[in-house]
């Protein structure tokens, strides 16, 4: 009875172990080509070989025997040692993918380099345009300064001429006023002498 229970327990354990590894993708190790058997051991008949790097599907695993039941690309179901399986893709499968990734990265780097060159050219063009604008503004500013200096000189000359005119006008008015005052003073001095002498002449004639 105990033996029957032990057998049942072993069977259940193996079943659970096989179920846990069902439909698991694995790869034949790159270092070898391996024989596949009809059962979990070398005592079973060899039904073919698998090349290094081939992808297989693990259907179940016999932990005690160290074998896995697999299905290959030819849809054959067979057994082979667990240590001849790898969880990572083989180099034969990874090299084309890596080459594609390298090609994609090279293309992207080429595009990035082209975009960078275009951006650099655009920036240089903008900087050149900005330099031209700055130079034009500086020249215009210098022209305005020169015009301001000329205008200031003209204003100064006009102020000098205006001061001369004002002094000339003031002098003319002073001379005119002095002349008028002198004539008035002269008339005032001569007029009293002229009027009495006329009266004396009038009396004498009478």
Write the layout of secondary structure elements.
Layout: H1 2-20, E1 24-28, E2 34-37, E3 46-50, E4 55-62, E5 67-71, E6 77-81, E7 85-86, H2 91-205
Subcellular location: Membrane
Coiled coil: 95-168
Organism: Symbiopectobacterium purcellii
Mean pLDDT: 77
Principal-axis shape equals rod-shaped
Terminus-to-terminus distance: 202 Å
Can you count the beta strands? 7
CATH class of the domain at 2-89, named Mainly Beta
Poorly predicted runs: 1-9, 14-21
Query: Architecture of the domain at 2-89, CATH level 2?
Result: Roll
- Total number of helical segments? 2
Signal peptide: 1-22
Pfam family, one: SH3_3
Protein name: SH3 domain-containing protein
Domain SH3b: 23-89
Structure, explained:
The protein is of the alpha+beta class and 206 residues long. It has a domain at 2-89: SH3 Domains (SH3 type barrels). It is built from two helices and seven strands. It has helices spanning 2-20, 91-205; strands spanning 24-28, 34-37, 46-50, 55-62, 67-71, 77-81, 85-86. It has a five-stranded antiparallel beta sheet. A two-stranded antiparallel sheet has the order 2-3. The longest helix has 115 residues, at 91-205. It is rod-shaped and about 180 Å long. The N and C termini lie far apart (202 Å). The model is unreliable at 1-9 and 14-21 (pLDDT under 50).
Short description:
Keywords: Coiled coil, Membrane, Signal, Transmembrane, Transmembrane helix. It is found in: Membrane. With 206 residues, this protein is of the alpha+beta class.
């Amino acid at each position: 009875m105990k033996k029957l229970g032990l057998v049942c327990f072993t069977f259940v354990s193996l079943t659970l172990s096989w179920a846990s590894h069902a439909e698991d993708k694995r790869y034949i190790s790159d270092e070898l080509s391996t024989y596949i058997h009809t059962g979990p051991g070398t005592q079973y008949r060899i039904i073919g070989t698998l090349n290094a790097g081939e992808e297989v599907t693990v259907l179940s695993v016999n932990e005690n025997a160290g074998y896995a039941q697999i299905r290959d690309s030819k849809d054959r179901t067979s057994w082979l040692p667990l240590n001849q399986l790898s969880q990572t893709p083989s180099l034969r499968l990874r090299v084309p993918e890596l080459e594609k990734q390298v090609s994609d990265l090279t293309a992207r780097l080429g595009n990035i380099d082209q975009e960078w060159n275009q951006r650099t050219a655009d920036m240089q063009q903008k900087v050149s345009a900005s330099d031209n604008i700055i130079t034009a503004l500086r020249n215009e500013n210098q022209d305005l300064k020169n015009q301001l200096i000329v205008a200031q000189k003209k204003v100064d000359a006009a102020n000098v001429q205006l001061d001369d005119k004002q002094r000339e006008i003031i002098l003319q008015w002073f001379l005119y006023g002095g002349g008028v005052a002198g004539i008035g003073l002269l008339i005032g001095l001569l007029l009293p002498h002229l009027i009495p002498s006329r009266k004396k002449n009038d009396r004498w004639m009478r």
